[in-house]
Design the sequence.
């Protein structure tokens, strides 16, 4: 059982091979945070690591330097993890430790996405019960430690066991008080078409935070942060990650106090939240995943990847190789006919593409983005036979068929809005803000979710559809719902999010064969909450390969390659105007779920030949790219080069990217990862790439795993006759582990 309780010390120790998390019941009845880090001996206790009160301006025996779940109003003075308002208007609450329970396995959270286990041995759960006698409120802190991932899942249940209503104002999923502040904070920031820019800053006294107030997790800040020690890099040093399984307004903060203690908090953003709890009711927070690595950031990412790919994603498509798709968006935008789509599909089949996705513009009278959202009936001028006839024609060609929808939206110019103007989110007697000429449906109302389930079920059942791209192209404004009483309007945003999860849950349950891809104008709602329903997401509307190197590297801090939709698009690129080679574009998109987003009928014959080779190569290595162990070898941010690799026991693929070409370049030593040091690998260059003969001569052959990891590949080596490759040049190295027989011969 990887959780031990020592009754004398009143200490709980949660551990696995690489991680210890220790908390204890303090003399004042609160729970204190003792230790979070590299493993400690679980058979001992750690009184000297326990938090002790400091003597400052005023000393309060009830104040604890490192609270496990800090509360409001008791002399802690940092931002609390929990606040509620009681009937007398007070927010003071002092729940003390009441009981604990340790069990094997891991519970789910009703109505909310969560990680899961398939075998009870995979996790062990501690439930700590805190009780506030005057109000009757109970808090249950849940901790599930995984056996095979260096991750701890946390959430909190608040039970109103009293006789009066209470209003929750702040219910963090996780609080972590650390004993020092010698950390750098890394967050994923950005905007539309430039999501997932990793930014790093040292922690400073006071509050630093990331958040969303948009009703979705947002392009601007992803609900993920990591702390790394100043000397930590990808492959060595301590790092701590926090990730929230939530798709709405969130907050994650780091607060450094006057004694250099650091408080981390993560959960629903209290700014836009309140929730009334009647006697007997309970509220569950979303789940947060804390990950720890003593061996660098890359290791932390690999733990998140494995956990999210295998124990958050679920259903038919979790372990299946994902189809290579062609999406018509950048090829045609709104301007297509059935004939045009079928011509594209014909060429797609000949290239080896497996799934044809019809994007926006197939419904109502939608010829641009001003109309028809909500009217999920075919645009008969473009598609005279409707979706069913198109889907049958496409599947008849040997392609699977997929469809774009944007269920949460309604256009002011639509049948749905004519019939139900009150279904759009807005405040009576005030104008609604249009964004992209559209309004948002009130997903907090069950009748609207019921309507969407019914309409979308009919649509999906009407045709051979095997993939759905669920888009969401605007943030929420004028939050208010007629279904909520005035004093309960603070529940709107969370109820909206629960409505989205409800619809996802019903649709994935009713149509388990469908592969869902989430999207919100690219990565506007790319978060672990949706990964529980849609195992892949459209990462960004920026399809420029150079930009994608940074975006995909940033996203890979937390998200597995199997979740990263990555498309090869036309040049000049539609977002940047940049020209780059087909090989460079393909080799970037390989490190994700490969797709194409350009008109294949417009390709020259040599381009078609190359794309067919690219697709053949990706198919042959698809399991490796989508399920292998991914490492970032060189970061593209502000650098001249980038490099990634994926590996499994027997093979690996290494991608090396030269961003800007320089004369007389300095050599680059690329030390590989995740190989067997005792094995021999045959190293080759992928011939269909625009490979550099110099690198091919200098690096290929039979080479030891130890040599490749410690000596590395030598790229741009001086003395080799280097061709001038130009900007945006990429090459792929393939590694194939040799049978022992061959190893012996080589040795
Ligand atoms: C935004 C998405 O990110 C694009 O891929 C495309 O589906 C458009 N919406 C369609 O409106």
Sequence:
């Amino acid at each position: 059982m990887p959780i031990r309780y020592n009754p004398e010390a009143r200490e709980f120790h949660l551990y696995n091979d690489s991680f210890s998390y220790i908390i204890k019941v303090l003399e004042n009845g609160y729970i204190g945070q003792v230790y979070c880090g590299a493993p400690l001996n679980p058979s001992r206790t750690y009184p000297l690591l326990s938090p002790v009160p400091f003597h400052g301006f005023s000393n309060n025996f009830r104040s604890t330097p490192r609270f496990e779940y800090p509360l409001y109003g008791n002399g802690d003075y940092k931002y609390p993890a929990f606040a509620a308002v009681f009937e007398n208007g007070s927010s003071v609450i002092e729940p003390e430790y009441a009981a604990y329970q340790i069990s094997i396995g891991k519970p789910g959270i009703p109505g909310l996405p969560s990680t899961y286990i398939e075998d009870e041995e995979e996790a062990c759960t501690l439930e700590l019960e805190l009780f506030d006698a005057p109000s009757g409120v109970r808090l249950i802190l849940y901790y599930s430690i995984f056996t095979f991932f260096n991750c701890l899942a946390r959430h909190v249940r608040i039970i109103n066991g009293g006789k009066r209503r209470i209003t929750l104002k702040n219910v963090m999923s996780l609080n972590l008080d650390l004993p020092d502040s010698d950390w750098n904070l890394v967050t994923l920031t950005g905007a539309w078409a430039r999501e997932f820019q990793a930014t790093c800053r040292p922690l400073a006294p006071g509050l630093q935070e990331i958040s969303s107030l948009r009703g979705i997790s947002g392009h601007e800040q992803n609900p993920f942060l990591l702390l790394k020690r100043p000397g930590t890099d990808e492959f060595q040093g301590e790092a701590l990650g926090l990730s929230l399984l939530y798709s709405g307004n969130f907050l994650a903060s780091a607060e450094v106090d006057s004694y250099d203690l650091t408080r981390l908090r993560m959960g629903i953003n209290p700014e836009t939240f309140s929730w009334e709890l009647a006697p007997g009711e309970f509220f569950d927070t979303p789940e947060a995943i804390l990950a720890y690595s003593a061996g660098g950031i890359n290791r932390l990412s690999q733990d998140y990847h494995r956990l999210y790919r295998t124990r958050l994603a679920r259903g038919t498509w979790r372990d299946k190789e994902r189809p290579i798709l062609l999406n018509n968006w950048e090829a045609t935008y709104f301007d297509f006919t059935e004939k045009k789509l079928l011509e594209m599909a014909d060429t797609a089949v000949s290239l080896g593409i497996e799934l044809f996705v019809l994007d926006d513009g197939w419904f109502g009278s939608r010829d641009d983005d001003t109309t028809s959202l909500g009217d999920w009936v075919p645009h008969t001028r473009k598609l005279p036979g409707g979706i069913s006839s198109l889907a049958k024609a496409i599947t008849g060609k040997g392609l699977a068929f997929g469809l774009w929808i944007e269920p949460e939206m309604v256009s002011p110019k639509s049948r749905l809005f004519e019939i139900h103007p009150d279904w759009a989110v807005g405040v009576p007697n005030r104008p609604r803000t249009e964004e992209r000429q559209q309004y948002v449906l009130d997903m907090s109302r069950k009748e609207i979710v019921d309507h969407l389930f019914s309409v979308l079920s009919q649509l999906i059942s009407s045709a051979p559809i095997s993939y759905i791209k669920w888009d969401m192209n605007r943030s929420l404004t004028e939050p208010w719902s007629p279904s909520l009483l005035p004093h309960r309007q603070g529940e709107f945003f969370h109820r909206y999010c629960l409505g989205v999860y409800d619809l996802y849950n019903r649709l994935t349950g009713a149509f388990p064969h469908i592969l869902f891809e989430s999207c919100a104008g690219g990565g506007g709602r790319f978060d672990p909450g949706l990964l529980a329903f849609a195992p892949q997401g459209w990462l960004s509307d920026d399809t420029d390969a150079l930009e994608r190197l940074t975006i995909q590297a940033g996203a890979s801090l937390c998200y597995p390659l199997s979740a990263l939709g990555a498309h090869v698009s036309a040049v000049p690129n539609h977002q940047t105007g940049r020209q780059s080679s087909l090989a460079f574009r393909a080799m970037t998109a390989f490190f994700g779920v490969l797709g194409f987003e350009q008109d294949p009928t417009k390709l020259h014959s040599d381009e078609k030949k190359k794309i067919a080779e690219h697709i053949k190569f990706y198919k042959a290595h698809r399991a490796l790219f989508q399920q292998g162990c991914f490492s970032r070898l060189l970061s593209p941010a502000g650098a001249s080069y980038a490099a990634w690799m994926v590996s499994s026991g027997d093979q690996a693929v290494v991608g090396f990217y030269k961003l800007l070409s320089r004369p007389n370049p300095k050599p680059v030593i690329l030390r590989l990862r995740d190989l067997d040091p005792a094995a021999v690998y045959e190293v080759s260059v992928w011939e269909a790439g625009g490979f550099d003969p110099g690198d091919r001569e200098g690096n290929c052959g039979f080479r030891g795993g130890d040599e490749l990891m410690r000596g590395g590949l030598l790229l741009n080596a001086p003395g080799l006759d280097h061709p001038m490759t130009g900007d945006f040049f990429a090459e792929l190295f393939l590694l194939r582990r040799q049978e022992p027989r061959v190893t012996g011969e080589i040795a």
Summary: The radius of gyration is 27 Å.
